[in-house]
Design brief:
Radius of gyration: 28 Å
Strand content: under 5%
Largest sheet: none
Number of helices: 3
Helix content: 55-70%
Low-confidence stretches: none
Number of strands: 0
Order of helices and strands: HHH
Shape: elongated
């Protein structure tokens, strides 16, 4: 029978990012509650930023298009 610690360490996940994002092994209920609250606030901020970016993209698509004009001809400069 595996202990909680050995199951935690041998999950077969070799991704270093996933390993670093795991919750602490011996986390108390209060620590877990605080961590989840912090993560929830961070997620809400991230979602707000994503929404603002999406709104900016939509407005950019709906806005007036830039017009490019190519002027052909001889350029004359006026000398002082």
């Amino acid at each position: 029978m595996q202990t909680h610690l050995s199951a935690y360490l041998s999950s077969g996940d070799d991704d270093p990012l996933a390993l670093s994002l795991r919750p602490p092994i011996f986390e108390t209920y209060d620590e877990r509650t605080a961590r989840l609250a912090i993560e929830g606030r961070a997620k809400a901020i991230s979602d707000g930023i994503d929404e603002e970016l999406e709104q900016a993209r939509v407005l950019e698509r709906k806005g007036p298009k830039a017009i490019k004009i190519l002027l052909l001809g001889v350029s004359k400069s006026i000398s002082p």
